[in-house]
């Protein structure tokens, strides 16, 4: 399945509000539904247990003191093997994280669910902050907070700011300007550290300044003219072209797809995107979120947490250098 949504309970572990997602799966909720309703609809009512690893040698049962298996409570599926220091984040904790943000700060939950048999789980909420990158107010951006975790060591518990381009639902992370003196796009909690929701929220308190900086830089990109030749150079750099060397066959096919999206993708005809650097950035996000197939994971997983997310971050980095 291109979506990799968990079906362990017999139904897709995905809940949403608003329009039905591209994969057409999940349970639709009304805006303002309770956290309890989200947990039920997203099929996240199960929990994770850490049990000792046991094995049989010469018909004798033995136990490892430093290795544990992570098991789902509802179907007893073994999801990973971890050390004694591994700190579990429960699926329901990801949604509980948003309870006061929804109740007291006007956040709105939009999606939640689990991937890969329950090995990854997430919730995404709209912060209520939005803006336009163009003077005609047609190219809108909305700010979201994504909280995700895993139980298979593939993803540290991560809270990240995400922007969604309203005209075509492309997603792009945006960086907090300063967290303890270091620029980074998210807050990660090591797996041997106890999950502390309040600590994460304090770090995410920089949303206002980082959102303004992000929108400001996007506006500079809308003013940066880019014809097909310069767009091709942008995509070549994005895909790792070495000086004087041609792209690989795979990279060349991806470059051609990116150029096609730059010239004729959703939202390309807006003044803010037509033949601009902003259009090239959004061609990349469109490519990752809705077009590219992944060799290392499924599309949703890839776009948010895997190589696709890194490619989008690289596009933003290259574009930021051009408008510096």
The main pleated sheet reads as:
8 strands, mixed
Structural class: alpha+beta
Number of helices: 10
Number of domains: 2
* Mean pLDDT across every amino acid position: 87
Q: How many beta-strand runs?
A: 13
Strand content: 25-35%
Descriptive notes:
By secondary structure, this protein is α+β, with helices and mostly antiparallel strands. It has 2 domains: 14-45 and 89-218, no CATH class; 220-322, no CATH class. It is built from 10 helices and 13 strands. Strands 1, 2, 6, 7, 8, 9, 10 and 13 form an 8-stranded mixed sheet that branches.
Task: Sum this structure up briefly.
This protein has 324 residues and is of the alpha+beta class.
Topology:
Layout lengths: L13 E3 L10 E2 L6 H7 L6 E10 L2 E13 L5 E6 L7 H6 L2 H7 L2 E8 L4 E13 L7 E11 L6 E9 L4 E4 L2 E4 L2 E3 L1 E4 L7 H7 L3 H16 L5 H11 L10 H16 L12 H15 L7 H7 L1 H16 L2
Parallel strand pairs: 1-2
Antiparallel strand pairs: 1-6, 3-4, 4-5, 6-7, 7-8, 8-9, 9-10, 9-13, 11-12
Helix pairs in contact: 6-7, 6-10, 7-8, 8-10, 9-10
């Amino acid at each position: 399945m291109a979506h990799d949504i968990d079906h362990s309970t017999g139904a897709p572990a995905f809940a949403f509000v608003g329009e039905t997602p591209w994969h057409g799966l999940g349970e639709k909720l009304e805006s303002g539904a309770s956290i309890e309703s989200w947990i039920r609809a997203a099929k996240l009512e199960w929990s994770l247990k850490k049990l000792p690893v046991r094995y049989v040698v010469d018909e004798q049962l033995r136990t490892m003191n430093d290795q544990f298996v992570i098991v789902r409570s509802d179907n007893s599926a073994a999801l990973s093997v971890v050390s004694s220091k591994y700190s579990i984040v429960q699926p329901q904790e990801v949604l509980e994280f948003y309870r006061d943000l929804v109740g007291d700060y006007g956040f709105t939950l939009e999606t939640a669910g689990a991937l890969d048999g329950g090995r990854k789980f997430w919730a995404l909420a709209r912060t209520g902050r939005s803006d336009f990158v163009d003077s005609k107010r047609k190219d809108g951006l909305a700010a979201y907070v994504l909280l995700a975790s895993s139980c298979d060591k593939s993803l540290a518990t991560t809270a990240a700011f995400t922007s969604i381009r309203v005209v075509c639902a492309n997603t792009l992370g945006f960086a907090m300007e300063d967290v303890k003196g270091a620029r980074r796009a998210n807050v990660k909690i090591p797996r041997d550290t106890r999950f502390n929701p309040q600590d994460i929220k304090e770090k995410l308190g920089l949303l206002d300044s980082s959102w303004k900086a992000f929108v400001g830089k996007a506006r500079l990109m809308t003013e940066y003219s880019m014809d097909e030749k310069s767009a091709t150079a942008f995509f070549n750099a994005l895909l790792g072209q070495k000086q004087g060397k041609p792209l690989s066959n795979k990279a060349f096919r991806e470059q051609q797809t990116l150029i096609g999206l730059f010239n004729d993708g959703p939202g390309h005809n807006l003044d803010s995107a037509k033949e601009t650097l902003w259009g090239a950035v959004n061609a990349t996000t469109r490519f990752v979120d809705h077009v590219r197939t992944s060799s290392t994971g499924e599309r949703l997983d890839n776009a948010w947490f895997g190589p696709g997310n890194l490619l989008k971050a690289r596009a933003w980095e290259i574009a930021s250098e051009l408008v510096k």
